[in-house]
Amino acid sequence: MANRQKRPRLLAVASGGGHWIQLLRIAPAFGDCDCAFVCTLDAGDQVGGHRFYRVPDANRWNKLAVIRMSLTVLGIMVRERPAIVISTGAAPGCIALLFGRLIGAKTIWLDSFANVDTLSMSGRLAGRFADLWLTQWKHLAKPDGPHYEGSVI
Amino acid sequence: MIFVTVGVQLPFDRLVGAVDTWAGTRDRSDVVAQIGASKYVPKHIRCQATMTPTEFKRCVTEATAVVAHAGMGSIITALELGKPILIMPRRAALGEHRNDHQMSTARLMAEQNIVTVAQDEDELVDYLDRIETLGRSAGISSHAGSQLVGRISAFIAEVDRRR
């Protein structure tokens, strides 16, 4: 389908639990993009027939797990070649934004609603790779980002 | 059925233990729990470590009330399905989380009257005894507000235009 080729490819990434649920709540914004979803839990039945990939979870205290997760994300990135990468956290999303940037995609980070007092570690780091860098709390917004544009609730 | 959930990443023995003891003393056999990495072995409640997001949603759907840590997945799912939710935040001082963001989440949500917050196990038991009378949350729609959705979709449209 020629038309299908023209739709931008979007890769949406989140860890299981709250990050994932917040990602699904912003999915209406993806419009008619050609979407693929990535989660650390087996959530393939929640993405309405879009492509789905599972990645191993990792946090910054387990370096081996971070490497394994990063390689999986890299593989997905090479296969998907997205024009847009979006994440609500945490570590796998941050890595996805980094790789997305490297392949020339535009990137969006929406920091979790749970980060009320300060941005998460991955949220601060993702700020370096995010073209659109958002917090869900007005009091955490700054002129150079993260910006506040409403919340998932 | 009362559904208890503490997320998948970190143990929360204080909550699981308190609910289990409560279920034993009150002879409640209708408590189901997703206990993640908790070490405590429940004697009175049915539990499993993890579940898929779809199984999780089914448990919340079938529950009359949800008891949880102050995690966004638990809170948002309960709100989307209009279920009363009782939360006890994890405390960093007790090694239950890396920082006290769950205390902040709990405080902000309690201020908006959308959740009931127990600060400790004693309060938790008090609320559990009247869990059937806890206010049903007004419910929220299944997607984010128009400001956020609009901003992200405008960004995507701009990327598409420039390709």
From TrEMBL, chain A:
InterPro entries: Oligosacch_biosynth_Alg14
TM spans (from-to): 84-103
Keyword set includes Transmembrane: yes
Top-rank taxon: Bacteria
Keyword check for Transmembrane helix: yes
Keyword line: Membrane, Transmembrane, Transmembrane helix
Protein name from the UniProt record: Oligosaccharide biosynthesis protein Alg14 like
Native organism taxonomy: Bacteria, Pseudomonadati, Pseudomonadota, Alphaproteobacteria, Hyphomicrobiales
From TrEMBL, chain B:
Record's keyword terms, sorted: Endoplasmic reticulum, Glycosyltransferase, Transferase
TM segment ranges: none
Keyword Endoplasmic reticulum attributed: yes
Highest taxon above the source species: Bacteria
Domain Glycosyl transferase family 28 C-terminal: 1-132
Compartments where located: Endoplasmic reticulum
Annotated SUPFAM superfamilies: UDP-Glycosyltransferase/glycogen phosphorylase
InterPro entries documented for this protein: Alg13-like (IPR039042), Glyco_trans_28_C (IPR007235)
Keyword Glycosyltransferase appears in the UniProt entry: yes
Family per similarity comment: Belongs to the glycosyltransferase 28 family.
Official protein name in the record: Glycosyl transferase family 28 C-terminal domain-containing protein
Lineage: Bacteria, Pseudomonadati, Pseudomonadota, Alphaproteobacteria, Hyphomicrobiales
